[in-house]
Amino acid sequence: MADPGPAARTPVDKLSAQAAAILTAWGLAPTQVEGTTRVMVAADLRGIESHGVSTLSLYDDFRRWGRLTLNPEIRVVRESPVTALLDGGGLGHAPGLQAMDLAVEKCARAGVSVVAVRNSNHFGAAGVYALEAVRKGFIGIAMTNVWRPGIVPTHGTTPMFGTNPIAFAAPAGRNQPFCLDMATSTVAFNKIKLANWAGKPIPVGWAMDGEGKPTTDSAVAAKHICLTPLGGVPAMSSHKGYGLATMVEILAGTLAGASFSAIRNVREPEAERYNVGHFFMALDPGAFRGEDDFKNDLDAMIDALHAVPPANPDQPVLVAGDPEQAAFEDRTRNGIPLSEEVRKLLERLAREARVPWMLG
Amino acid sequence: MADPGPAARTPVDKLSAQAAAILTAWGLAPTQVEGTTRVMVAADLRGIESHGVSTLSLYDDFRRWGRLTLNPEIRVVRESPVTALLDGGGLGHAPGLQAMDLAVEKCARAGVSVVAVRNSNHFGAAGVYALEAVRKGFIGIAMTNVWRPGIVPTHGTTPMFGTNPIAFAAPAGRNQPFCLDMATSTVAFNKIKLANWAGKPIPVGWAMDGEGKPTTDSAVAAKHICLTPLGGVPAMSSHKGYGLATMVEILAGTLAGASFSAIRNVREPEAERYNVGHFFMALDPGAFRGEDDFKNDLDAMIDALHAVPPANPDQPVLVAGDPEQAAFEDRTRNGIPLSEEVRKLLERLAREARVPWMLG
Prior knowledge:
The structure is a homodimer. The first copy, chain A, has helices spanning about 10-25, 30-45, 55-65, 95-110, 125-135, 190-195, 220-225, 240-255, 260-265, 295-305, 320-335, 340-355; strands at about 75-80, 85, 110-120, 140-145, 165-170, 180, 275-285. By secondary structure, chain A is of the alpha+beta class. At the A-B interface, strand 3, strand 6, helix 8 and helix 10 of A face strand 3, strand 6, helix 8 and helix 10 of B.
């Protein structure tokens, strides 16, 4: 995505206000508006445009399909000193933030905690939640299953899992937090769409045709939505990515009592809610190490990784979270570079919702 | 490895006795002998020969290098109702089993627990520990860092992580447990050694030469031991495998206060102990779901995965743990098919240790 430069940057508060105005006009309750806006804009700040305000397009689809619950009650269904199960009832951002808050609170008292959410939906960028735990000095983990299957099991022909992401964040001292935020597919579907729009082929191992064969034809790949699990092909150990996608489905879906979407889509195609599930965990290094020992050791590791001689001097060795942190620092200061597509999307949604256009 | 057939199978109890006799003759304390033998033979039963009694070859190296602590004191260094830190002091099997036992005990009371081990060493197959939690109806997670770096970070030239495995197991009802047990490298180094012995090339993306370039020459790959992280090459998202390897290093190494081996190998090449670290976690589905709900839903998922139409009818879709479970059922009944190399290794070690040869 071409950066239009600082002059064309959109101030963070204006972007938040515009997104919130659209969601409010849709009839979404204030808690939902606040949570959804906060997580979307946090993703845009970290340079993860695919999970930023561009996801309003998906939520608009949900709304049109009658599948956006406007005023859900977020309930704590079960609770213990170190675990909890929440019922989300609508979009996943607000219950996701509440669940991670609860996990952090429990972890502060006990050293470790797990909070699951059921009856939820798309929650945006998983890394945003994991980083909430890091703000309190804890390790944070966030996972979610997905309403729509896209990943095909190794040796199979049909998609059974969403892109089932894993986010893992840990606090460093001198360095920015380590933050891994990855789909368990080889690549995001977005990369295939972009290749298709550009009429370009894709590498073997990104996607399959409808018969379980690897394809390099981006049009075929875009039509079938048969993503490969990380690894890509059996010879490159795609069974590991498939195993990781299943692990996420078990932790985020099965543990919470959420739907396994590949089955639900067949059994209950008209279900009012998607019943997506999330998994949140917080873990206190202070339960294991002395004051600052963990942060100091993580700093030493991050420094050692940054110091690895690169194969190509123009491409230094990075650590998970580096590009997002660089985007965050730039965008917090200079505003968010909206792409032309996203700007048009917001303009249309504002017009349709009859709210003022604030980014003109 | 060619199966010599049922006639040539080695009974499990004889194999255990032979391994235990060798370890005892080396001077290892009874707790160490028992734990190490149990985990090695459990791996052989599950068909994971690379982590079975064949690892006695590595432990023999440790012994010769003066790096095998014969009678370590396994100590609980810190403890809370849901966390603990153990000091292992020698091989990782005995403290690993003790740590997972402790995690299970804490989880039974609280719903979730994490136990870390520092000052340890090679602990065998991670899946063996994860399955210990499943025996009590819990989800089990086991990870370890590794004394010797082998995985090169994406865009880098030098190995910084061991094969840093992740094991995740979960209890089903009708079906066998789900059990993912994977190195975060694309493939195990063993596959490269075998290709080199056979004089065969390896696929692009398994390994790199000493300058960070992918190599298909198995001799070059065997010489440099520069494994790729899962994904293989940047275009196939090897940064995800690199991120996972780092995550395991943080959880198993940094959290426990173990050494980051890529640094230690430079700073303390003569350190008496490797100070490897492990991470164990137990999680009770009963803290989130009603009686049997989790198992029933996991059964439905496993059934759905087994029912996915395969791309090739001769290669059905499997679920993580299927091949190991099939081996377990066969080998429990019929004994363990030892390869000629492993048989020769055991014979040599028995002779050198002056213990009777029991597998003649």
